[in-house]
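In response to reviewer comment 3 from the previous cycle, which asked for concrete evidence that the modeling workflow produces usable outputs, we include below a single protein chain processed end to end. The sequence was submitted unchanged, and the resulting structure tokens are shown without manual editing.
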Amino acid sequence: QVQPVESGGGLVQAGGSLRLSCAASGRAFSSYAMGWFRQAPGKEREFVAVISASAGSTYYGDSVKGRFAISRDNAKNTVYLQMNSLKPEDTAVYYCGAKTGLRNYGNSFGYDYWGQGTQVTVSS
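The workflow returned the following structure tokens.
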């Protein structure tokens, strides 16, 4: 079992960068794939990125490819999301989730544990 806690959100101008962190309690952290999703007001939760338990595989949503990078440090029980070239349409609450394996990684229903989210606002 893990309990993710997100941090690092804030207000940034378009074109800027932010790095989100997700620190997860629990000794099983290194057994879980970790994903980032986001949800804007009135919209469904959208897949952003996922990283395998060993960090050997990463996948990204089409809207963030080439701009965002996911990484993890299993020694620190932490996963990161580096966000560059931010756009106003990236504005959302960003959530960190943990799941077993990578099957259906783009579907939020497959994740076992979620954090409370961190707000990212990109001004134009």
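The chain has no helices and eleven strands. We consider this sufficient to address the reviewer's concern, and the full set will be provided in the supplementary archive.
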